[in-house]
Amino acid sequence: MARRSDHTREELHSMAIDATRTIIAQEGIEGVSARKVAQQIGYTVGTLYQSFENIHDLVLHANAFTLSEMLAELEVSFQSSRDPLQRMVKLAEAYLRFAETHQRQWAAVFRHSLPESYPMPDWYQARIDALFALIESGVRALAPKRSRQSIQGASRTLWSGVHGICILHTGDKLFSNRIASAQSLVQSLVKHYLNSWVAEGKR
Amino acid sequence: MARRSDHTREELHSMAIDATRTIIAQEGIEGVSARKVAQQIGYTVGTLYQSFENIHDLVLHANAFTLSEMLAELEVSFQSSRDPLQRMVKLAEAYLRFAETHQRQWAAVFRHSLPESYPMPDWYQARIDALFALIESGVRALAPKRSRQSIQGASRTLWSGVHGICILHTGDKLFSNRIASAQSLVQSLVKHYLNSWVAEGKR
DNA sequence: AGCATAATTAAACGTTGTTTAATATTCAAG
DNA sequence: CTTGAATATTAAACAACGTTTAATTATGCT
């Protein structure tokens, strides 16, 4: 039996999250189970339930980690270009690249649905907000004069679109990418949408 | 015990699909289970497994039904306007409206992931192809001179975008729609993207 | 009527998330 | 130190899940 002095509560917590992330990376989110995680960290399920409310809580923590990783990469890409439009293209490409590189982790984030009885925690929502804040700042640079509402709308429209391409690209096989690579789709979307949206603002 | 003369194989098949659709509509795809479906049609699980390979097969049939319903509605909307651009806007709006109206059914279609050991059946893929064919025909009307490749790319880009908006809207985790309605996002996406894409073809 | 065929069921298996009571460990007070 | 309260950990249980099995029941054919 593992002794309680072997690991602190905090250590246990992060060990479980790490194990969950490993399982997701190897088998996808469907492969995650309380028993499997427990076994991987050398404890039993009961101990796991001392650190996490339920399995959703655990997966949510693993997914939050993924979101943070992604945000870090996006921020690097964001800085990689000075031209505002090019910056948005780079950002979208980085988003797609992350989805491709960390397919299962990324899928876990956006496929995992929690029961309506279990509302999304604030600390998790904060990650998503940070993501959209980055996008909005990029869009704002393209049209500094436009209203906050307008910028928010364009950001959400654009990023929903980028997100949609990533979903249909990585997850399902809605289209074979022999015709057009996902990257070219993303480029097409960002350039054309922002092109017309910026022009609208100058009319 | 239900007698086998009570219902033909075909009746059983469609009874099970109907029951599945009802459960999805009421409780979402998470509420579907073999036992629940079996009980609702007055048989036991074993009988269900005589009509369907596994639970994925059953859900797939229910989802195919949903896709057909959606396609029918989209076709009506497609005809509702003569102007090619307006037609695409209507099409996208109809897609969003369906996603809103049949939230759980629509979510079931796009959240259900089948194991990689179980490839998507042709009859299911055919539904998706029909959907994209409709979209492509609308895009082609906007730029008849452009290459098949180009039209396919634009169609997929655009519809991935529309799809993404619907996902983030109905899941409504990502943004509160008090700023901009999903409908306005969809309109914005379709108009601006096609605007610039069509212009590019005329350069 | 009787036999073969097929449909249906009840029961089982292994898995899941979660809870429970019992046990083991820690920590503080005497 | 020892004892006792507090807590961590475990093993076992529960209900529900997908799926398979053997046994039973209904059908169709000769």
The sequence of SSEs of chain A as H and E is HHHHHHHHH
The most extensive interface, with participating residues per chain, is: A-B, 43 and 41 residues
Number of helices in the DSSP assignment of chain A: 9
Give the amount of beta strand of chain A, in percent.
Answer: under 5%
CATH architecture classification of the largest domain in chain A: Orthogonal Bundle
Say what the CATH topology of the largest domain in chain A is: Tetracycline Repressor, domain 2
The quaternary organization reads as homodimer
Summarize the structure in words:
2 copies of one chain form a homodimer. The mean pLDDT of chain A is 92. Helix content of chain A is 75%, strand content 0%. The relative contact order of chain A is 0.11. The first copy, chain A, has 203 residues and is mostly helical. Chain A has 2 domains: 1-52, Arc Repressor Mutant, subunit A, CATH 1.10.10; 65-202, Tetracycline Repressor, domain 2. At the A-B interface, helix 7, helix 8 and helix 9 of A face helix 8 and helix 9 of B. The structure holds a DNA duplex (30 and 30 nucleotides).
Task: From the structure above, extract its key features.
DNA-binding, homodimer, elongated, Tetracycline Repressor, domain 2, Arc Repressor Mutant, subunit A, 0% strand, 203 residues, mainly alpha
Topology (SSEs and partners):
2 copies of one chain form a homodimer.
Chain A lengths: L8 H19 L6 H8 L3 H7 L3 H25 L4 H18 L1 H9 L10 H21 L5 H24 L10 H21 L1
Helix pairs in contact in A: 1-2, 1-4, 1-6, 4-5, 4-6, 4-7, 5-6, 5-7, 5-8, 5-9, 7-8, 8-9
Chain A binds a DNA duplex (30 and 30 nucleotides) through helix 3.
